[in-house]
């Protein structure tokens, strides 16, 4: 009993050690609870997501309340003595504080790490450095359907993480869902050429399709959602002005996406020409697709 009292007195005297022990204990309990909630299922249900979120928020609240109670006297003394100075510091260094807290938010949420592809606002790139004030990325041209580096280095202040959502695109470094559309001016039955188009696309994807299926399964298991799959998809729609759109989506290696798109466009032009122009379905004006 005497030893227990000594331990308690030691912990109450050294509050830093007690705080660290409490945080470790709560985090361990949270990890066990999250593991039990998730189980061994591949896809997380909405019910599981709710309970996982409640568990994370509840443990965070417990840590904050416990630390506040433990350090209440010190916080009160510190707040009273530095209130006026703190107000002046906050007003004068608002942006610096936002950058600092943005770094804490990034680290606590584990949004990304060095080497990941991220998108913040309209900027996409690979993270090459991050510190307490800023994050440095090598820009990648994703918004134009390209996946190459532009050669530009972008420095993002960490305060941006409170303004814009951070999208982690790390899985796109190896394989990507690449989508593009082909516009056809004349109204013909494009569904006639869809089977041949899919056959041609599958031929182009034959060399990597097995690896793509395995990688797609890895992404599904990690994300806990059902993705479109690794097979190529072709569907047809129309624009408000009456043109037809041939939409193509394929799961392919990132470095091959642009090259495959050009080959598929070439195949479409050839199949379209052989099916419709050579058969003289429209003798007055050759039906030529444009992209």
TrEMBL record:
Q: Where in the cell is it found?
A: Membrane
Instruction: Spell out where the chain crosses the membrane.
Output: 6-29, 57-73, 79-104
Q: Does the keyword Transcription regulation apply?
A: no
Mechanosensitive ion channel MscS domain segment(s): 100-170
InterPro entries from the xrefs?
A: LSM_dom_sf, MscS_beta-dom_sf, MscS_channel_2nd
Give the primary localization class: membrane
Name the record gives this protein = Mechanosensitive ion channel protein MscS
